[in-house]
Specification:
By secondary structure, the chain is mostly helical. The protein has one domain.
Length: about 50
C-alpha cells in the first residue's frame, strides 16, 4: 500500500507513527531500498534526536 501511494498516487510525504518497537524503522528502510532505483535521489530524515 505504501509503495502504491508513493509511486502510483505520487504521494510526496509519508509519515510513520506508532509505539516504539513495532517496526516503523524496519518498514521504512525496506520500502526505501525497494523504491530507490525509481528515483534520482532519496532523502532520509529522522526526527529521533530532535525530540529530546
Amino acid at each position: 500500500m505504501l509503495q502504491t501511494w508513493i509511486v502510483q498516487d505520487h504521494c510526496r510525504l509519508v509519515t510513520l507513527l506508532g509505539m516504539g518497537g513495532v517496526g516503523k524503522t524496519s518498514l521504512s528502510v525496506k520500502l526505501a531500498e525497494e523504491l530507490q532505483d525509481q528515483y534520482e535521489f532519496v532523502i532520509w530524515r529522522s526526527l529521533r534526536d530532535r525530540l529530546s
